[in-house]
Design a protein that fits this description.
single chain; alpha/beta; Rossmann fold; 2 domains; five-stranded parallel beta sheet
Length: 403
């Protein structure tokens, strides 16, 4: 079967689909990944065909300015919609859509008659169990959580309004609003596979049939890949270090965060691995090393704790490795995942990004690395996640859909 996976956003929004795509390819399918051109190397390393979308990865902007973030998101969606009008799908027998691409991919599928399935790394359907993942962690009660979930979907509809109108015109389709398209998919029981672990988020009992939780999809890592030699030397030279990184977040805060991290490590008597990321973290010395992009799957099992922005993928990777976390959520769904890790006992209480100080980070590092409660909770979660076969379940679901 010829399968086209469409994903867009930051690296964390795209990388998990390389692992899913590789699993589909091993099952005998021809798989292509459509994503912004920046991510072509990720696709090629996983052995996937690549089809570029002319849209920049979403800029995170000033983390304290929500209006700026919304403007950035609106610009990104507009570019993405224009890219979808040119995506070659004539040879695809199935479109696999991410949360970012689904509101556009449905219209492309309508124009071409191609079947679709959702592949979502976070829960988006309303539920009484918890509020929308993008609005924070405060529960509003079951009725309130569901109402807030529906409101969050309407806000997404508004964000995609202009892009959908433009895309449908380009495809020669009659007018249809994003809300109407979404309701049509829901009424048809559109299938969505959710790529997160029930160790973190059990499937809500009030979800409709067709919404399945299969476990986490991991970014593809070549079996022959190894950590860089200088990083291996650093790991071997002393006690397990702490990993500190903020992924694609915190751009423009690199100097402050680097100094803060170094001082907190000194206070807590720990060594550290800083990942540069979009923030541009950088420091050196006997007890600190700076790295670029390295596979979390190879590094996290060898660290004492992980300080991170609580993105869905990084949160799951730390948990999979059995590494206690110090979550420092920045925006979007990150407070949700941070709270989930803390509720499991596998992380310290989250430190909101704007409240991060040397003192708070040093204290949290001490608790994460020396409180055996956190260590045991993380190890227990890792054992449960090791029993999951997310890629295998996704492949089986895809094959059932088109059989």
């Amino acid at each position: 079967m010829r399968i086209l996976i469409a994903a867009a956003g930051s690296r964390g929004d795209v990388a998990p689909y390389t692992g899913l795509g590789a699993a589909l390819r091993r099952a005998g399918h021809d798989v292509a990944l459509a994503a912004p051109d920046t991510f072509a190397p990720l696709a090629h390393r996983a052995g996937l065909e690549f089809r570029g979308l002319p849209a920049r990865p979403r800029a995170e902007g000033d983390v304290a300015d929500r209006r700026a973030l919304m403007r950035s998101a609106a610009t990104f969606v507009t570019e993405l919609g224009r890219g979808f009008a040119t995506v070659p799908v004539h040879d695809a027998e199935l479109l696999v859509l991410s949360p970012t691409t689904a509101p556009l991919g449905w219209h492309l599928a309508e124009a071409t008659g191609t079947p679709t399935i959702g592949a979502y790394p976070q829960p988006t359907a309303p539920t009484g169990d918890f509020p929308p993942v993008v609005t924070g962690t405060r529960s509003l009660g079951r009725l309130g959580n569901r109402a807030a979930g529906r409101f969050a979907l309407r806000m997404t509809d508004r964000l995609y309004g202009g892009a959908v109108t433009e895309l449908r015109r380009a495809l020669g389709l009659p007018e249809l609003s994003p809300a109407a398209a979404r309701r049509r998919q829901e009424a048809a029981g559109w299938p969505v596979l959710h790529g997160f672990s029930e160790t973190l988020v059990p499937r809500p009992a009030d979800w409709r049939p067709g919404l399945e939780v299969v476990g986490t999809w991991w970014p593809y890592v070549d079996p022959a890949e190894r950590l860089p030699g200088d990083l291996e030397d650093f790991l071997a030279a002393g006690e397990r270090p702490v990993f500190i990184g903020f992924g694609s977040m915190a751009g423009g805060h690199g100097e402050r965060l680097s100094e803060l991290a170094v001082q907190a490590l000194k206070r807590s008597g720990l060594r550290g691995v800083l990942q540069a990321g979009s923030a541009g973290l950088a420091a050196g010395g006997d007890d600190v090393v700076t790295v670029g992009e390295v596979p979390h799957a190879l590094l996290f099992p060898r660290v004492a704790a992980v300080v991170h922005h609580a993105g869905a993928g990084t949160s799951a990777a730390a948990l999979r490795a059995g590494a206690p976390a110090v979550p420092v959520p920045v925006a979007a769904d990150q407070p949700f995942w941070a709270a989930r890790l803390a509720a499991l006992g596998a992380a310290t209480e989250p430190i909101p990004f704007r409240e991060l100080t040397v003192e708070r980070l040093a204290d949290a590092l001490g608790r994460a690395t020396r409180d055996h409660t956190h260590v045991r909770a993380a190890a227990g979660a890792a054992r449960r996640m090791a029993a999951e076969d997310a890629a295998g379940r996704a492949v089986a679901a895809v094959e059932r859909l088109v059989s």
